[in-house]
Specification:
single chain; three-stranded mixed beta sheet; two-stranded parallel sheet; 5 strands; binds manganese (II) ion
Length: 213
């Protein structure tokens, strides 16, 4: 019911021609294979919630919404694919999510509707300008940013000692994680140099994990 109400509020506000709800496994196998820590700290679905998920398809479909359940890709990936497809077809997409990983989708004709739990206000509209304002980088670099900064909620440690400011600074200077790693040996700060040189392989995996399929 909570989800239905959140979605209904956004429908009233934006009047989309179609609504798709995306479901998938909590942690895609390919992501866990890249890094065993990915989503490893996530709690199990509570017993009382599991049957609600099981019944939710019919409930949501009764509103005329499309439910897309994927058995190997995560909901993130499916949402991103729909948004990309709609924009490529000349339409506009709103990606409603509580997951900031999805900031990577923001571009012309794709806006993230970022839902914060609590507060009771509607979702925030996050486009490319808002991503730049919040992270200091372009949306396309969000996976590089996540790899460097880390993401505790996803079990990704990031580069040792690197927070959001340094991650954004490095990306603005070099343009991509790969370019940062190529130049790492010339980094003047010894701790940062060591974190980048020694962390190289893991950091590339984190970027791959954070990149939507
Ligand atoms: Mn995610
Ligand atoms: Mn996440």
């Amino acid at each position: 019911l909570g989800t239905a109400n959140l979605v209904l509020r956004e429908i009233e506000e934006h009047e989309p021609r179609a609504v798709v709800l995306c479901f998938g496994p909590d942690a895609a196998d390919y992501r866990v294979e890249l890094f065993a820590g990915y989503h490893s700290e996530r709690p199990e679905v509570p017993d009382r919630l599991a049957p609600l998920f099981a019944d939710s398809r019919a409930f949501f479909e009764a509103f005329g919404w499309v439910v897309h359940e994927h058995n190997s890709l995560e909901a993130d990936d499916v949402l991103g694919a729909y948004a990309r497809g709609e924009a490529a077809a000349g339409g506009k997409a709103l990606v409603m999510t509580g997951d900031r990983d999805m900031y990577q989708c923001a571009k012309e004709n794709v806006t993230v509707l970022y839902v914060k739990t609590g507060g009771g206000k509607g979702a925030e509209e996050v486009g490319p300008a808002e991503v730049r304002e919040r992270y200091g980088i372009d949306p396309a670099l969000v996976p590089d940013f996540i790899a460097l900064r880390g993401d505790p909620s996803d079990g990704l440690p990031g580069a040792k000692g690197v927070g959001p400011k340094t991650a954004a600074e490095l990306l603005r200077q070099h343009g991509s994680l790969e370019a940062i790693l190529d130049a790492a040996i010339r980094e003047r700060r010894p701790a940062l140099r060591a974190a980048l040189v020694e962390g190289k392989e893991d950091l590339l995996k984190f970027k791959d994990i954070a990149t939507l399929r």
